[in-house]
Amino acid sequence: MLENMCKMLDKAKKEGYAVPHLNINNLEWAKYILEVCEQQHSPIILGVSEGAAKYMGGYNTVAMMVKGLIKDLSINIPVALHLDHGSTFEACRKAIDAGFTSVMIDASRFSLEENIEITKKVVKYAKKKRVSVEAEIGHIGGTEDEISADIGYAKLEDCIALVKNAKIDFLAPALGSVHGLYKGEPKIDFERMKQIKDELNIPLVLHGGTGLPDEIIKKSIECGICKININTELQIEWAAGVRKKVADDQNVYDPRKIISGGEDRMKDAIVTKINLLGSANKA
Ligand code: 13P
Question: pTM here?
Fold first, then answer.
């Protein structure tokens, strides 16, 4: 069932696990993810970046495709369709109008005051349509140098100001995670994560789930993380499978066969993540 993220993340917060946010890039990815999550009885957040939405044709195409898959594959687990890193009010509005059930407004590149203003506007629009809203503060994916110098980490008082003023449902505080592969050891500020959790009592989101050791994922969940975003890791697994398929069968030309070369590796990786996050049988 397509729904917003409120119920699924409140349950995750109460019961101490995290719901996977897996980015989709095409029809096959959406289908594989839904099939695995249904089989594992795990709730799922399908994350769609602005670039991925554009690649697939636009927000309407994505929303209709996901709704079609849920119906045709008889998917009964809770599914949220979520705009990942919406950069403007306009992008969020388009996704909401197309039928997305959740949006992230990422105005973290602006000053705190501007971030609050833009986020407030998105919340006002989203609430009318029962769409949930995530916002970001700090700088996720800062360079290693910035992170070492403690630049870009979310400040507790800024988190409080954003949540209280903009009335968002979930917060993604940048606390040392990066998108893509980590160059050195990830340096996550768990102490601040716990302070933010204790102070605000809303579900927290961890971006940059790829490459984080299992202990960091588990500790993050203990410190208030209820949603973990993963993209690059699935891309790597899927691409390795496709490469092998093409290398093993030089005569393959059916796109369905080439693309599904990545299916098994990607599905196995999803099962592993669901078990690590603890979301199996929570649907
Ligand atoms: P990774 O690509 O590092 O897994 O991050 C995904 C993400 O945070 C999407 O918002």
Answer: 0.96
